[in-house]
Amino acid sequence: MKGRWALLVGILIGVSVLSLGIGAVSLSLPEVWNGVLTGVGLGSAPETATAVIWELRMPRTLAALLVGGGIAAAGVGLRGIYRSPMAEPYLLGISPAAGLGVVIGSLFTPIGVPPVAGAILGAATAVLMALGIHRLTAAVGAGNRLILLGVALGLTFLAWTVTVIFVGDSPRLPTFTYFVFGSFAAVTWSHFLVALPLIAAGAAIIGVRGRALDLMSLGDAPARSLGVEVQRTTTWVLVAAGIAAGASVALAGVIGFVGLIAPHIANRIVGPRHGRSLPVAIAVGGTLLLICDIASRLVANPVEVPVGIVVAAIGGPALVGVLLQSRQA
Amino acid sequence: MLEATGISHRVNGVVTLADTSIEVKAGEFVAIVGPNGAGKTTLMAMLAGELEPSTGTVTLAGKPLKDTTLEERSRLRAYLPPMQTQEIGFTVREVVAMGRHPWRDQDLPDDDLTEAALEAAGVASLAGRKLGSLSTGEAQLVQIARIFSQQAALLLLDEPTGGLDISHQERILRALASRADHHSVVAVLHDINAAASVADRMLIMSGGKAVAFGSPAQVLNEDLLSDVYDHPISVISHPFRDGPLVLVGNQTSDVRPAPRPSPQTPPR
């Protein structure tokens, strides 16, 4: 276990260093190291390199790790309450709803609702719908029906998002297009620092409810008979997943699949206990998304492909893999 | 231990359980039998506190059930709802250890009690396997072990042997019967003879009502059962032990058509 953690953290750090070096201006490993040190007053790197690292790539790298971890944490919570490996914020329509919230909030309100507020309002709408549907269909096999509903709602939200963008006819239209497909290109420190506490809080709530989620894998009634407050746990985890997914969308746009794949990999590494798989899923999700972000900078260099496109290109086949695997099990 | 007085259940004007009373003493095995749709599962869910009665009260260990917290209930009674197939990645030991959840803040030897429950249900040899890799019967024995590890004085089991073969049914019933020496057990069972072989008392339900409650010898009578199941049923005395044996059909109903003559081979 310790060895696996060391490997995971090693990969995470290695990918982060790559992320600081790769982009329109390439920096070598010593240049990255020097630039990082200079930013804290210990090195002697040229001003531009230091600025590229500290103003552009550092927040971007940390944001990718944070968002990957945030949607992975939401995925761990959601698959726990819905007892389905396919329950994750994108497929349940939460992320697309958050995206619609951001776009409506900033284009159609006189004051310009901040993205985080819009995203969390949007996510809350989707969560409330999910909660209502969960109550209506709290039966065996409800999980799959819920995901179908989520996919249907998600596509609708996405369609409305694009419609709203076009109707809005904003000069910021290109930015929003990137936003619909997810991107870290415009991330700043202030965006990152707004999302950080929200995502941390969401992940922490899911972690605290980890044992309850373990017991809920027996079914709602057996869990209740063991003293688990199933309804309360469901509500808290949905709220936490909504906050984490909403803040992620506000920071980087709508990104799917990481919430599905990261918990799955974590499950494979440390088993089904939610408390144990949560930190692993966060680390895996962050690393995966950062790898995708690096790829998004390289694929069509010097033009950036939206990271969500890269994620979907990899995530689509991965979803097929998960489906085939769960059929065998 | 457990007492339900005049409980009923009505959803959208449809009565699924009408004015039913039952009391279960400490150390007693009560079997609930009756046709599908008789209200057995509704009754069990109410005894477990999963469902609120429309009228009447349920008292658990001297306290109205609705005044107890989930936590209190979890230490007093264990409840196994009807079997559901699930893909669970947990191992058998992990699942059985979940039964210790109600006692997590007490200083108890949880690991030993988990092992003892695995033994009592006869699944110790499966402890390291994943639940999802077991057969239906094995998986149900594991759920029984989990119910045992909960260390509640009252065990409520809804069709614990549903869909299982004779061997697994017997293993579960024997395990429950030996548990009933120190615990109260209430189980919904479909096999009347199996129920009669383990139960101290049987509750027969029909059309949302309890129609008989007493020892197997008292309640298993031909007219009652034939009426309840809407099919001729005979009761004879059991050849190996004291007590009744229930047979489906009777001398007039159970006449098989004469075997058809085997087709003649045409002469060559």
Overview in brief:
The complex is a heterodimer of chains A (about 325) and B (about 270). Chain A is an all-alpha fold.
Structure description:
The complex is a heterodimer of chains A (329) and B (268). Chain A is an all-alpha fold and 329 residues long. Chain A has helices at 2-21, 29-39, 47-82, 94-107, 115-136, 142-168, 173-181, 189-208, 210-216, 220-225, 230-252, 258-270, 274-298, 307-328. In chain A, helix 1 runs parallel beside helix 13 (274-298), helix 3 crosses helix 12 (258-270) and helix 9 (210-216) packs across helix 13 (274-298). The mean pLDDT of chain A is 87. Chain B has 268 residues and is of the alpha/beta class. Chain B is built from nine helices and twelve strands. In chain B, the strands form three sheets. A six-stranded mixed beta sheet of chain B has the order 6-7-8-3-9-10, with helices on both faces. In chain B, strands 2-1-4-5 form a four-stranded antiparallel beta sheet, with helices on one face. Chain B has a two-stranded antiparallel sheet with strand order 11-12. In chain B, a hairpin with a 6-residue loop joins strand 11 (233-237) and strand 12 (244-248). The radius of gyration of chain B is 21 Å and the shape is globular. Chain B starts with a strand and ends in a 20-residue tail after the last strand. The chains are: A mainly alpha (329), B alpha/beta (268). Chain A binds chain B through residues 83, 140, 211, 214-215, 217-219, 221-222, 224-229, 267, 271-273, 326, 329, and chain B through 45, 48, 50, 70-71, 73-75, 77-81, 84, 86-90, 94-95, 98-99, 101-102, 132, 143, 146, 150.
Protein topology:
The complex is a heterodimer of chains A (329) and B (268).
Chain A: H1 2-21, H2 29-39, H3 47-82, H4 94-107, H5 115-136, H6 142-168, H7 173-181, H8 189-208, H9 210-216, H10 220-225, H11 230-252, H12 258-270, H13 274-298, H14 307-328
Chain B: E1 2-11, E2 14-24, E3 29-33, H1 40-48, E4 55-60, E5 63-64, H2 70-76, E6 77-80, H3 92-98, H4 110-120, H5 136-149, E7 154-158, H6 166-179, E8 184-188, H7 192-198, E9 201-206, E10 209-214, H8 216-219, H9 222-229, E11 233-237, E12 244-248
Parallel strand pairs in B: 3-8, 3-9, 6-7, 7-8
Antiparallel strand pairs in B: 1-2, 1-4, 4-5, 9-10, 11-12
Helix pairs in contact in B: 3-5, 4-5, 5-6
